[in-house]
């Protein structure tokens, strides 16, 4: 089966990379952008850049309309109750830092923050540092062998002292949807706030934050075929109202004097200074692009590629998969081969995959590994990318063994 991607030609970078001899299999780190997103970026700059929410002139009005248009689109995309529940941040990392700072005053020494053993540093370090600042306890939910947060242990560990649960929707290392429905219900039953890191999950299918029942959900545009420098933080209205302001400056105040100021609520009160206007507009184009695709066809193509990836890895001696990935990516390690050596030989052959700890050092320690190779897929990848990867892998292993 050739597994051709019908969307590959929408992405000019794919032919540029192929011409350079590069096979891009690192979309979980950042995704390539379709022409529609490039057009939106150029269109904004070429028609006249202007600041948003400030100017009465035509370019300012046009930029504000496009910028706010993306907010409305993002609200629809996630089925938020209102565009006012959508905050633009620099990305998932900034969104979680905003939460860890903005919610800090709600916690008392001895309160518990619950995360899981598979969290990316972005959903670990902000909570760890908050716990250190406020003498909170950071509780870590363990995993089972498949790479799922263990619900039996979660039932024991999420309790009356739990004030917040922050977990990933889809692991960037293990490639499994996490049991969010059950976890969020456990946290809600304790009256705890809930945060979902959608950095990896957001791009696979559509996610309904109200059906999910979380207080906060965040993702980065650059992993969703949009520009970098912008991310979305959804907050349920009542949860957003509990957030303390965190960055201060232009366009986030009602009134200001030398001695005091009166701040806007969400979203503008949390978007101090000039935002990443072009990137927000480009994110709108990415959401349009994705929204117009046949979701079932995309999911089917990605699933077929993923099966091919897993089958190819399983067919090779000494390859150990991390967990049981179910979509999008596979991380692996090869017996008696150091992942850095393997990564080096793959890179030399033009294979762009990720190697190392994947910003999840504690997870790697839990798995007893210093690192792993991760192959991740985008909707533009096709069977030939995987064939090139496996050809290069075989050559590298021949050299290393
Ligand atoms: C699960 C997860 N969370 C958070 C992040 C951080 O995203 P960003 O670097 O876009 O802020 C990543 C990035 O790889 C991720 O995979």
From TrEMBL:
Single GO BP term: cysteine metabolic process
EC number: 2.8.1.7
Family designation: Belongs to the class-V pyridoxal-phosphate-dependent aminotransferase family. Csd subfamily.
Keyword RNA-binding (UniProt): no
Transferase found in the keyword field: yes
Enzyme class, spelled out: transferase
Reactions listed under catalytic activity: (sulfur carrier)-H + L-cysteine = (sulfur carrier)-SH + L-alanine
Cofactor: pyridoxal 5'-phosphate
SUPFAM superfamilies in UniProt: PLP-dependent transferases
InterPro entries, alphabetized: Aminotrans_V_dom, Aminotrans_V_PyrdxlP_BS, Cys_dSase_SufS, PyrdxlP-dep_Trfase, PyrdxlP-dep_Trfase_major, PyrdxlP-dep_Trfase_small
This protein's name: cysteine desulfurase
Organism the protein comes from: Metapseudomonas resinovorans NBRC 106553
Pfam families from the UniProt entry: Aminotran_5 (PF00266)
UniProt xrefs under CDD domains: SufS_like
This protein's UniProt keywords: Pyridoxal phosphate, Transferase
Domain spans labelled Aminotransferase class V: 23-389
GO MF term list: cysteine desulfurase activity; pyridoxal phosphate binding
């Amino acid at each position: 089966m050739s597994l051709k991607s019908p969307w590959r030609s929408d992405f000019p970078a794919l032919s540029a990379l192929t011409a350079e001899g590069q096979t891009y299999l690192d979309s979980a780190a950042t995704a390539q952008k379709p022409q529609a997103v490039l057009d939106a970026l150029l269109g904004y700059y070429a028609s006249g850049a202007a600041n948003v929410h400030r100017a009465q002139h035509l370019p300012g009005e046009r930029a504000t309309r496009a910028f706010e248009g993306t907010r409305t689109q993002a609200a629809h995309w996630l089925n938020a109750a209102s565009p006012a529940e959508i905050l633009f941040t620099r990305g998932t990392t900034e969104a979680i830092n905003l939460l860890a700072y903005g919610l800090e005053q709600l916690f008392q020494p001895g309160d518990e923050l619950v995360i899981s053993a598979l969290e990316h540093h972005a959903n670990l370090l902000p909570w760890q540092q908050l716990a250190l600042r406020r003498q909170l306890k950071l509780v870590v939910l363990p995993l089972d062998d498949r790479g799922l947060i263990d619900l039996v242990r979660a039932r024991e560990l999420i309790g009356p002292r739990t004030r917040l649960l922050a977990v990933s929707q889809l692991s960037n290392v293990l490639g499994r949807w996490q049991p969010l429905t059950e976890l969020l219900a456990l946290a809600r039953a304790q009256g705890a706030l809930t945060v979902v890191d959608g950095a990896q999950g957001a791009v696979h299918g559509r996610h309904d934050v109200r059906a999910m029942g979380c207080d906060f959900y965040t993702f980065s545009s650059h992993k969703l075929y949009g520009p970098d420098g912008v991310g979305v933080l959804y907050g349920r209205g009542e949860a957003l109202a509990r957030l303390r302001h965190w960055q201060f400056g232009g366009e986030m105040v009602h009134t200001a004097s030398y001695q005091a100021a009166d701040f806007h609520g969400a979203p503008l009160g949390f978007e101090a200074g000039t935002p990443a206007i072009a990137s927000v507009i480009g994110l709108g184009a990415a959401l349009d692009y994705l929204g117009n695709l046949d979701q079932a066809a995309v999911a089917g193509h990605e699933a077929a590629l993923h099966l091919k990836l897993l089958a190819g890895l399983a067919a090779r001696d000494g390859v150990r998969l991390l967990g049981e990935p179910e979509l999008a990516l596979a991380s692996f390690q090869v017996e008696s081969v150091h992942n850095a050596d393997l990564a080096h030989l793959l890179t030399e052959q033009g294979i762009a995959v990720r190697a190392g700890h994947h910003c999840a050092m504690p997870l790697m320690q839990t798995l007893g590994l210093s690192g792993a190779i991760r192959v991740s897929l985008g909707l533009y990848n096709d069977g030939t990318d995987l064939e090139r990867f496996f050809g290069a892998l075989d050559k590298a292993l021949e050299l290393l063994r």
